[in-house]
# Entry
Amino acid sequence: GCYSRFIGTTSSKALDPDLRAMVEAAFQGRKNEFADHRSVIYLRTGSGREVVVLLQAERELSETDRSLVEIFSSRLSIAFDNVILYQQLQDANTQLEDRVAQRTRALMQANRRLSAQWLRLQRANGFKNEILGTVAHDLKNPLGVILGRTEMLKELISTGASSSGVVAQVDHIRDATKRLTTMVDHLISDAMADAFDITIRREPVDVAALVKEVAEANQPLAVNKQQTISLATPSNIVTMCDTDRIREAIDNLISNAIKYSPIGGRIGVAVSHEGSDTIVRVSDEGAGLSPEDLGRLFGRFQRLSAKPTAGESSTGLGLSIVKRIVDMHGGEVTADSEGPGKGSTFTITLPATELP
# Structure
């Protein structure tokens, strides 16, 4: 029965055939049987369990012996019940401890989730404040220019001023509008990079041709500052990437090089195929980067020690957008500079596929 594990047997077949017959008869008859040297005591515990006790003696039991055996057996049944109840209590305690431990783990996990959510909310609130600060500070300036120049233009028209004066005011308004548009584009790009459903549409892209296209689009800005853009773009280098996203990343690097390079400076743009990667490098002869700049270069809304050389404005988002785009492609963007005043080089590394 349930105590078989204590005697090392798991079946009644392990008993002597005669003893087994006596045990089976005791369970069927539900009464005590006293033989010459062997006796069988049938017990029914308070919990309803049936117990058979086999007793073997060298002499015949007297009536007193039999009474003592029956008394002992009755106490034995109580002991069995106590053992079973104790085991049940232990099992219940173990189950209770397990449930408490599970509940504690669940509460700790919930607490960690709440803490993580709280941190995310704090970061989101901080990001919101940064955006508001940027909008209030950076976007306000070109808006002020547009409003001021509009008032001046209105006065010039009302007084019948020459067309050259009117055109000059329109040019100022156009330049301020371009700066404002660029800032808004950066804010939108950064917000989209935060979206959970952002996807990269990979397709074979001729990176050299893409770099030439972006450089040509930025050529007027370089000409305005008397700068030269030199290209080193060999053919037959194809990268599986999102054309629009990579164009945006390269455009940010080239426009930054123009913005932070001095009047008459030289900007180098090179594309190469190294191993299984496509490398795009943009170098300039600008103010360079300090060790502090290099440590926080790709963060949001970072203000670097170097300043734009022609009064251009900046949201501090361009390089963070570049990093996000490159990260989403499984690539890497790095920056190198020998120090302030010695220019800088930005390198984009993307997994590439070469055409035969």
